[in-house]
Structures are given as structure tokens and as C-alpha cells.
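Q: Fold this one first, please.
A: Sequence and structure below.
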Amino acid sequence: MPVSRRCILLPAAIAAVALTFTAAGCQKSADEAKPTPEAPASTPAEAPESTPSQSPAAAADATVLFEVTGSGTAITIDTDPTTDRVYDAPLPWQRTITVGPDVQLLQVVAVGADNAGCRITLNGQVVTEQPAGSAHCTYTRP
């Protein structure tokens, strides 16, 4: 027994997919037989640029000033992110470093100086400060 084939009319949204898989013997209408223009391929110059996840201000390096205030001598002074320990440091003391946008924790600790205080300045703005008698300052960048 011969098998008959039928063309089924589909909604416009499905028609394009159905035309790709039409069975043998189905005929396309005159409109469907016309080639559809393809969108031009984008060239590398036309490709959209990726947007950085951070704003330019957040992506910039920052200047950090670590300070230990007071008088006398500190047995040790430690700063973080640089782990350079300073021994027998005369007070007042300071160190300036540049940090990248990935550095979040800033810290200065002075040991052995009874009247020492501390301060951390980020890009010219004091972000944390402790009075004399407490020489441990920490700041976490947002």
C-alpha cells in the first residue's frame, strides 16, 4: 500500500524550522522559495568590546601612607600588605607604598612603644587612626 505524504501548515514561528525538515514531496510556496538575506557577519572591529567589571576609579592603584606616631623607639613595626618588618624604628615613623585594586587589607602594628599611635591614609584621606597607647591600625577596602 503506497504511503501518502502531506504538507502541514504550521504557524509562522515554527514554519522556518519545519521548512528545514520538510519531507520529500512537499512543495514550498513561491514566498517560501525565495532566499532570505543573511545578516552580515561581524568583523573583529565591529565586535562589541567587553566592559570591565570594575569602574576605572576602582581599577586604579592607590597610595597608602602608614604612620606610627609618638616618640621613642618601636621594637618592631609591621605593615601589611608589605611584610617588611622594621626593627628599632625611631618614632615618629612612616612608609608610603602603592597597592593595586586587588589589595583589600591594610594594616600597621608597632610593638614595644608605650606611647605610640598609628594612622593609615589612603589616597590622601585618613581611613583609620588610633591614639597613643594603641599602635595597631587596620582598614579593609570596600
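Q: Good. Now the second chain.
A: Here it is, same layout.
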Amino acid sequence: MRIGLLADLHANREAMEACLEALQQAGCTRHVFLGDLVGYGADPGWVVDVVRAQMEAGAVAVLGNHDEAACSPPDAAGNLRMNADARAAIDWTRKHLDPGQLDFLRALPLQVTEADRLYVHANAWAPGQWSYVASRLAASQSLAATPQRLTFCGHVHDPALYYTQPGDAAHFDPHPDVAIPLLPARRWLAIPGACGQPRDGNPAAACAWLDTETDRLTFLRIPYDHERAAARVREAGLPDALAQRLLTGA
């Protein structure tokens, strides 16, 4: 089976559509959504509805910090920890989701285990505290917190792959369209990158897919109409910096 992996969709319809099409072309028959379905972008309701339909067909989705913020009161701690642009986007998002969509987000689990895989938005050691796996030390801490051989997470908007070795986990930056064998003697943590708001200087949407039969992982970068997505952000009255970020990928 080939499983599509998407993280940090951030209400970006154009990016999500492009990634789903690319994953379908790659032969994926099932998807995992690694949190932050909403926030920043102009189409939260559309994204939530698509993920909900995918889950009815067997997909998996986990809760992200922006999802939690959107279905929490404005003065909740998670909202207050966000920067001004993120808070403004969450306030806007909350007003553009209906009660059923908010209930859907509220019911998402923090993590899901399946076979030898863990799916989580932030990390395995404290998934509801939203700390980042942004270093070899943090990757080691996350890998040590779960017995699962493979961990897939988001939250960090740059693609990355870590694996166990003596000392801190090893890290490398994956190249798109190169199948990586996930050797069984190692344990792995993969971050597919952000579908809806890349931050590595490349505006192309990021995602990945796992072949469970060959135990190979392939990262993808998918060009999409990011200028249209940025225009939609501006048309919605969201902070201009969020549109600019889509244009530059930074």
C-alpha cells in the first residue's frame, strides 16, 4: 500500500489540491493528515470538509496546534502563545467554520499508532505541548518516547528525515522524488514538510508518500498556483505577511 503524508495544510486549497493529485498519480490509495489543517490560509472550511471525507474513506488525521486554537476560546493559552498574525488568522478562521467543522477539529486525536508507525503533529514525548522537532536532540527525544519504528510528524515546516545511531539521531535533508529505503535496523522520524505554507525558501508545496511493501519513503515538492493562494489570503483580509510567505516560501 502507498500512503500519502500531508502536514501543515493551513487552509491552503490550491496547495492541497495539487498535493492530492500528485499523490494519486504516485499510486497512493490512503492518506494521513499530520495536523494543522487550518490557520493562515483562506479556505479552512473546504480543507476540513475534504479531510473529513477522506477519513470516512479510511484516512487518518491528527490534531495540530492551529486546529486546537481554532476550536478553543480566544483567550485560551494556545491562542495567547501565538504571534499576532497567527492569532489574527485563528480569529478569522473561527468565524469561518461552522459548528460541525469545529466539532470535527475538536475530536481529532493528538496521535495515532498503526502497525509500526506513529502519526503525530508535533512530537512523541509531549504531543499536546507543541514543542518542535527542529534538531537532532529533539528527534532523539521523540524517537525515545515511542516504541514505533517509524514516526511521521509535522509542525516544522521544512522537510527532514532523522534516524537512530549511537548518540543523537542523524539528520539529512531529503531530495524530492528519491525513494529512501527505511532500513529495518534503524528507527526513523520523517517530517514531510508543509503542504500549505513552506518555509524553506521554496514556495512549492511539500508532501511525501510511504510504500509499506517496499519500506521506502519518497518526498515530493509540488509546484502549484501559490500566487492565487496568496491573492486569496489578501482577498480574505488576512494579514499580508501570510500572503507574502506563500509567494517566497520563507
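Q: Anything worth noting on the second one?
A: The radius of gyration is 17 Å.
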